[in-house]
Amino acid sequence: MATRNPLSRDRVLAAAVALVDRDGLPALTMRRLAADLGVEAMSLYYHLPAKKALLDGVVETVLSEIRALPADGGDWRRHLREQFLLARRVMLRHPWAPGLIASSTSVPPTVYAYYDGIVGTLVAAGFSYHLAHRALHAFGSMPLGFAQEIFSPAAAGGDFEPEAAEAELAAMAEAMPHITAMVASEIHDAGEATLGWCDSQTEFEFTLDLLLNGLEQLRVAV
Amino acid sequence: MATRNPLSRDRVLAAAVALVDRDGLPALTMRRLAADLGVEAMSLYYHLPAKKALLDGVVETVLSEIRALPADGGDWRRHLREQFLLARRVMLRHPWAPGLIASSTSVPPTVYAYYDGIVGTLVAAGFSYHLAHRALHAFGSMPLGFAQEIFSPAAAGGDFEPEAAEAELAAMAEAMPHITAMVASEIHDAGEATLGWCDSQTEFEFTLDLLLNGLEQLRVAV
DNA sequence: TGATTCCCCCTTACGTTGTAAGGTGAACCA
DNA sequence: TGGTTCACCTTACAACGTAAGGGGGAATCA
Q: What is the DSSP string of A141-177?
């Protein structure tokens, strides 16, 4: 029956990513992953030393989808903007990845090389190493395509009005008048293309431009 | 002996926070927590429905340490800056909390009230609701006292040179020349008060001011 | 006072998890 | 041909969260 195709670290990791994409992160157990590969759980340990290594490998696999844009001579802001938005599309394909990346302790080596390119872009644009360093920290996780926000799209936005009774809603409005007014104002002004009331793509780009423009001002101020 | 002091949700949560502060998040199991309280594991289920509720409660307990500053009439930037730095001190007391908060799905109600005060500060300073909304997203997790960065203090910074062989270090320098130069430059310029080469307090304040100043410009531009 | 109820904690047990220890057959190399 | 190595398997264990139900002491009610 078919060819005798032995496992490999890469095949295991690819299957793991596919599994998590399909059934979510909690579904990634050694036994289920092995079953997907037509194998017993302990067989995975020949290719990976432990579950932690599996998770690290999954992170590494997802991050490898982020390709570094070649340096063009143009505006550094435009370049990094495109780079980060490109990374963001990778994260949208694997919505569970930001959480996993944030919880993983070590940073894979490929990420260092990736960040090196960003620093290169900055210094080529006239940034001092000192300011480039600050900029890296200020970007936070944006170079990898996500901003770690407290209000996840699922938690906020959708759940605001649906299942709340009218009395609760009134109490809520009294307890937090400003947020209530803000939501009302935003819903009123929205109207057109916005999907819900929190377009994470728009928020991402807004924050990104805020940082890029702020850094540009610091750059020329020297 | 002593007095017959029954458990309560609050006592359980307080013990849980103490346990995690002492032994780390993975040590928080129902059995260990019960043992700390001189009780059997299943007894906890009388006060909490499940482990998830325990974790939510722990998050809630930590966040309750963050007190909202009373609104003063002064500069909004100064006010929010103090507020966020005050929140940061809470997180420094519980370094595991950011990770737990980020991984928790729902946002406790107290946080909504807290964010309401921030929106109030912004609109009182002349922000439109629209811009205040954007600002909230841009702040990310800073109102709670932390910025989710990829390079954790433990991962980067310290581990850069200690255990690397000279050959590896040279290869690393070749593979990522910009970061290498940046580190060298920063170490050279540091000298004085900075602890290591990544003062997270300084980075936090830098990013915070970058956002505050950028938002101020957008505010007056309208 | 005696009976009942409720509160608070306990014992036992189950399924699932990651993984240590060691076995097994095929392929390969001497 | 006999040993070594590879790739996978079987078995087993400790620790996890938690479902099910028991028990005893205090409070409440007749």
A: TGGGT----SS-TTTTGGGGSTT--HHHHHHHHHH-H
B31 CB and strand D closer than 7 A: yes
Residue B159 pLDDT exceeds 60: no
Start-end ranges of CATH 1.10.10.60 in chain A? Answer: 9-48
Q: Which residues of B touch A147 (CB under 8 A)?
A: 137, 140
Q: What pLDDT is recorded for position A144?
A: 96
Tokens of A71: 């340096």
Chain B nearest-CA distance from A117, in A, is 7
Give the whole-angstrom CA distance, residue B114 versus residue B76.
16
pLDDT in tens, B11-64: 999 999 999 999 999 999 999 999 999 999 999 999 999 999 999 999 999 999
In 3D space, the residue among B178, B127, B218 whose CA is nearest the CA of residue A209 turns out to be B218
CB under 8 Å to A174, separation ≥6 — which residues? none
pLDDT confidence of residue A190: 65
**CA–CA separation, A168 and B167 (whole Å):** 65
For residues A127 and A132, give the distance between their C-alpha atoms in angstroms, rounded to a whole number.
6
Q: What is the pLDDT of residue B188?
A: 78
Give SS3 for B192: coil
Interface mutation target, options B56, B127, B137, chain A, most CBs of A under 10 Å:
B137
Give pTM, 2 decimals. 0.90
Contact B155 A107 (CB under 8 A): yes
Yes or no: domain B9-48 corresponds to CATH 3.40.930.10: no
pLDDT tens profile A145-170: 999 777 654 444 444 444 556 777 78
Nucleotides of D under 7 A from a protein CB: 7-11, 15-21
